[in-house]
Every structure is written in structure tokens, then in C-alpha cells.
Write a structure and sequence with these properties.
This protein is an alpha/beta fold. Helices cover 35% and strands 18% of the residues. It contains 14 helices and 18 strands. It has helices at 3-10, 67-82, 90-100, 107-128, 132-135, 155-167, 217-235, 251-261, 280-287, 305-309, 325-337, 353-365, 379-384, 410-414; strands at 30-38, 44-51, 56-60, 144-152, 173-177, 212-215, 241-244, 268-270, 292-294, 315-316, 342-345, 371-373, 385-387, 390-392, 395-397, 406-408, 425-428, 433-434. The longest helix has 22 residues, at 107-128. The protein is globular. The model is unreliable at 1-21 (pLDDT under 50). Bound molecules: D-mannonic acid (CS2) and magnesium ion.
């Protein structure tokens, strides 16, 4: 702290100019802001902030299928605003970018802010020599229960996929299934793939146009309970089973499906209906006691207001990456804790290892942690992002490396050039566009 800054402290608050506020970083400023794009089996956007002391911090800014919009937002509109700022003022920088933009919320804005927030948390952790979870209040548990993605076209492939997850140590498994009469369904490894098949790296998802899939909600609603009946009978009553409805049902249909799944005791039913209309969940709740998880496409606390205050959900599904970073998701979780709602942070492979690490630090620190989604990244991805988090006996831990515990390998990253990739689109059998 410089003498000048002490003098500022005694000045009347109104007389202090922006930038005169006391710095915690002893004059350190943000010197360099870089946006890194790489494609090690899938596209990732990473923000790297370097301070005048040479400390670097990383933030994940990946919005799957719309990656370059965030690149432009950060490069063209945010980077130069950060240069010269105090890297320790995380909340102030968050408010500066959120309120300062005037155009609030939305996935692109909130992912850009999230990346800055994560990078500044990373820097503060490195400078203080502490893992980020220590800055958030310290660990409240030994590790984080994780769930993986099992799927298959038919029951034998689904069983095989669940078995593989159990062998890898998972203690909770999400189960997705194909639907008889329909072709490829999102979230299910392509027909013919072994149980180990993964849908998230399929080449069909690359190129300049999304693939088109077909959907029939009634066929799905008839088939799904038969799959869960079989899985529950095969794997017994203890294993937590999850399912993602991917926004495909109306509230009434969601309530009916929830009720038909109740005998199989699901850990949660995710995104049973599009939740832009938060009140729609009242109808679902009236019909079923099935635990519900929602929020992977939300990006602010306001998206949850009714869902949380009326206890219409059980789990918050947001990603740190798409919800304004650790600072904002922590606020959502503190709000949710008043209503006994827990976390189930989004963690598929389109969340980079940096975003995943941020989720683990937050999950370890908050009291109302529930479960963490975890799909292992490809070896190519892990060659670019060197992680220090661990997965042992079904539990994730962020590790004790100062900061977020992820390093970015520039040379490895440069070898994988960006290429367009799209999420699918979905049509009902009569051709009507539908949620996928
Ligand atoms: C899914 C995601 O993980 C999940 O629950 O819903 O795979 C989601 O579809 C992708 O993140 C979209 O990018
Ligand atoms: Mg989902």
C-alpha cells in the first residue's frame, strides 16, 4: 500500500476519484489481456489476464456453437477496459462490466464477465498462495460427488455403459436412451457405438450447419419409464440415477413423466420443460414429487427468482462459465441455500477444464452442494489444459495448487485450430421445429 493511497483513505468518499480507492494489490495492475481459441477435439475460448507482476489468471469463456461471439465481446469491447485496473477488485470489476455495459444479462455478456471473474480469482489465489476454495471460505466436505453420462440405443448398451461408469469409479450415473422409431437423439452415443461411445465428440457435430434430429414426445414418454425400470432392476436401489429431459416437454407432460418415473427413485429429472416461463414449474410440482434440476442455459440470479423463492426446483444447474463467474454463481447459491436448494453445476465437455475447476472450487466451499456433473475431457483437451483436479472413488477435488489449478499450454493449444461446430436442431415428425 503506498503512502498516497493512505492519504486517499482519509479524503471524503465523494472526493475520491475512481481509481483512487485503496488497492489491495500494492499498486499491481492488469497489464495484458489475451483471448485464446483452441480446438482440441472441440472449441474452447479462454481468457488470460497477466498482471504487472507477471502473474497470470485463466477464465473459461466457451459458449458451445457461438464461440466467436464471446471472442469478439472480449477482444473488441472488454480487454482494453481491464488494462490498468486493480486485479484484486473482483466484485468492483464484475459490477463495472455488468452495469457498465448497460445491456445486461444474456449468455454472451455473462460468459465474458465470467471469464474475467474466474481469471481474477485465479490471480488472487496465486498471489496469496491459496487454492480458490480457500478464498471462498474453505472446504466444507472431503470431495464432490460426481455423475457421469451413460447412454445407449438399446437396454444392453445402456447396461454396458452404466457398468463402465461404475468401473471408472462413478457413484452416480445419468441415463439417456434412444427412442424406438426415432433416429439419433441428442445425449445418446450413436447407434452401433459400444457402451463407451461418446456423443460429445461425434464428427457429425462439426461443419457449417447443425445436424437435424427427429423427435416424438409421446414415444419418448412411453419408452423412458421402461428403461428406468430395467436399469433400477439391474443395478439395485442404491445407485443415484439421473435423467435429462432437455427442455422437450410442456409442464403438463413433464408432470406426467415425473410421476411415471417416481417408482424408480431418480436423483433428479433435469430440464423437464423450457423454464423461461418460471411459473410453468408450478404445474410440474403439482403433479409430481420428482426432484427437479434446472438452469444450464440460465445466466443470472433473476432467471431463478421464482424457481427459488417458490421452491419449484431442487438443484441449480448453472455453469460458472455461463452465469457470470464464481462471484455471481456464489450469490445464486447463497440465495438458494435459504430455500434448501442445492447445486448440480453444469459440467459437460463444452465447459473447459478452467470452467470445471472453477465449479469444483465453488462446490467444495458452499454448504449447499448437491452433485457435480463430470465428463472426462479428451486427452487432446487435457494436453492443452493441465489440470490439478482429481477424481478418486467417485469424488472430485479441485486440488491445492494456488489459484484455480489449471495451466494453459500455448504450444499445444496453437496446434488445434478453431473449426465451426454446431449443436443439433430438432423437428417433430411432421417437421415442426422443437427443442432438442
Ligand atoms: C447437457 C449438455 O450436460 C448436460 O446436461 O444438457 O450436454 C448441453 O446439451 C450442452 O452443454 C450444450 O452445449
Ligand atoms: Mg442438461
Amino acid at each position: 500500500m503506498t503512502t498516497d493511497q493512505h492519504a486517499d483513505e482519509s479524503a471524503p468518499v465523494g472526493a475520491r476519484a475512481q481509481g483512487d480507492l485503496v488497492s489491495s494489490a500494492a499498486g499491481t495492475t492488469i497489464e495484458r489481456v489475451e483471448v485464446l481459441v483452441t480446438n482440441p477435439t472441440r472449441n474452447f475460448v479462454t481468457l488470460r489476464i497477466t498482471t504487472s507482476d507477471g502473474v497470470t489468471g485463466l477464465g473459461d469463456a466457451t459458449v458451445n456453437g457461438r464461440e466467436l461471439a464471446v471472442v469478439s465481446y472480449l477482444r473488441d469491447h472488454v480487454a482494453h477496459l481491464l488494462e490498468g485496473r486493480d486485479p484484486w477488485r473482483i466484485e468492483d470489476t464484475w459490477q463495472y462490466l455488468y452495469r457498465g455495459a448497460y445491456w445486461r444479462r444474456g449468455p454472451i455478456t455473462m460468459s465474458a464477465i465470467a471469464a474475467v471473474d474466474m481469471a481474477l480469482c485465479d490471480i488472487k489465489g496465486k498471489v496469496t498462495g491459496q487454492p480458490v476454495y480457500q478464498l471462498l471460505g474453505g472446504a466444507t466436505r472431503a470431495g464432490l460427488l460426481a455423475y457421469g453420462h451413460a447412454s445407449g440405443a438399446e437396454i444392453p448398451q445402456i447396461f454396458e455403459s452404466v457398468h463402465e461408469h461404475l468401473e471408472e469409479g462413478y457413484r452416480a450415473v445419468r441415463v439417456q436412451t434412444a427412442v424406438p422409431g426415432l433416429g439419433q437423439v441428442y445425449g445418446v452415443a450413436a447407434a452401433g457405438a459400444s457402451g463407451a461411445g461418446r456423443y460429445d465428440y461425434e464428427p457429425a457435430r462439426r461443419g457449417l450447419r447443425p445436424t437435424e434430429e427427429q423427435w416424438d414426445t409421446r414415444a419418448y414418454m412411453r419408452h423412458l419409464p421402461t428403461v428406468f425400470e430395467a436399469v433400477r432392476a439391474e443395478f439395485g436401489p442404491e445407485l443415484p440415477l439421473l435423467h435429462d429431459g432437455h427442455h422437450r416437454m410442456t409442464p403438463n407432460q413433464a408432470g406426467q413423466l415425473g410421476r411415471s418415473l417416481e417408482p424408480y427413485d431418480l436423483f433428479w429429472l433435469e430440464d423437464c420443460t423450457p423454464a423461461e416461463n418460471q411459473e410453468g414449474l408450478r404445474r410440474v410440482r403439482a403433479l409430481t414429487s420428482q426432484p427437479l434440476a434446472i438452469g444450464e442455459i440460465f445466466n443470472s440470479i433473476w432467471d431463478y427468482q421464482t424457481l427459488i423463492t417458490e421452491q419449484l426446483i431442487d438443484y441449480v444447474r448453472s455453469a460458472v462459465t455461463h452465469t457470470g463467474g464464481i462471484t455471481h454463481l456464489k450469490k445464486i447459491m447463497d440465495f438458494a441455500s435459504l430455500y434448501q436448494i442445492r447445486s448440480g453445476f453444469h459440467g459437460p465437455t463444452d465447459i473447459s477444464p478452467v470452467g470445471q475447476a472453477a465449479a469444483l472450487h465453488l462446490g467444495l466451499a458452499i454448504h449447499n452442494f448437491g452433485i457435480q456433473e463430470y465428463m472426462r475431457h479428451s486427452d487432446e483437451t487435457l494436453s492443452v489444459f493441465r489440470t490439478s483436479y482429481t477424481f478418486t472413488d467417485g469424488l472430485l477435488h479441485p486440488g491445492d495448487t494456488p489459484g484455480l489449478g489449471v495451466e494453459y499450454d500455448d504450444e499445444a493449444g496453437a496446434a488445434f485450430e478453431y473449426s465451426p461446430a454446431y449443436l443439433p436442431v430438432n423437428r417433430l415428425t411432421d417437421g415442426t421445429m422443437h427443442d432438442w
